[in-house]
Amino acid sequence: MGNATSGPTNYQELPRFDRGWTFLWAEKVHIKRKDHGIALVDARGVVPVPASILSVLMLGPGAVITHGAMEVLAGNGCSVLWLGEGGVRFYAAGHADSERAANLMHQAEAWADPIRRGEVVRKMYAMRFNENLDEALTIQQVRGHEGVRVREAYAEASRQTGVAWSGRSYKRGDWTRADPINRALSAANACLYGLVHGAIVATGFSPGLGFVHVGKALAFVYDIADLYKVELTIPLSFEAVAAGGADIEGRVRRACRNLFFRRRLITRIVPDIQRVLGLREEAARIVTHGDPLDLGLGIWDPDLGLVAAGRNWAPNENAATAEEILERFGEPEEGAS
Fold this sequence. Notes:
By secondary structure, the chain is an alpha/beta fold. The protein has helices at about 65-75, 100-110, 115-130, 140-160, 180-200, 220-225, 230-245, 250-260, 265-275, 320-330, and strands spanning about 25, 30-35, 35-40, 45-50, 55-60, 65, 80-85, 90-95, 285-290, 300, 305. It is globular and about 60 Å long.
């Protein structure tokens, strides 16, 4: 992965996301360079992470990263995303291995070929229906079936929650005039777009080359997000409105954050993108920064198994504390040039 391989480099081949870790989420930590990797530091101690095993580092609120850490991550082919809480907002991305364009090229070729583009569109609709579509149906007919399915999803959510539904209607420039359910749907979909956008950018695809949606900078984001709306954001929005209370947008954003994390949505998005584009599907895993032992990091002990690293195991009062470790990490970064 990245620059760790030997021999000639194929600059059109992205690192495989089923090798090592894929998406590492970190928030409320200080990320610094340590030797040939990075270290996640907070009041509980230090978690060293080899940069060579990472494909995507997702930075949430409170995460601070140094120049040295970015340098070693870029050198190992790891993309870095700056996201909102729970990954439901996409702010920016730092791309590594920009010369490796295999996924982008595959997407562009499928987009530019009318036959292949039609196949991708049919596959997207089939995934929404979760069934095979009659090949005799035209794209217009399939789109009509999709419209009926979405309309029925809104009606069913309305029946189950008792929230009145009179259709999707809102104006960006006049947000307050929309009814609560339309505001809830817009807030939920914005959260979904943020997570999908991050996954698309992190894996080397273009958010602007859409197949169903066209002409917008996030066209492909809307294509992929539509795979999940009936399952996730529509029922969530109706339930949030039915529950009542003020600040519907804030409550929906928090509910989306929890639902997306609970369903491990990020691990579905990458394989789904690959599936619709006819690429080999690769498993994606997300690892959060918590107890280092949960990440499989520590010191091996023949009797105890894995024990905590980043501390002095001497049985006396001179053992290093977390505060001392933090103070030590305040010095110039290890391995920085």
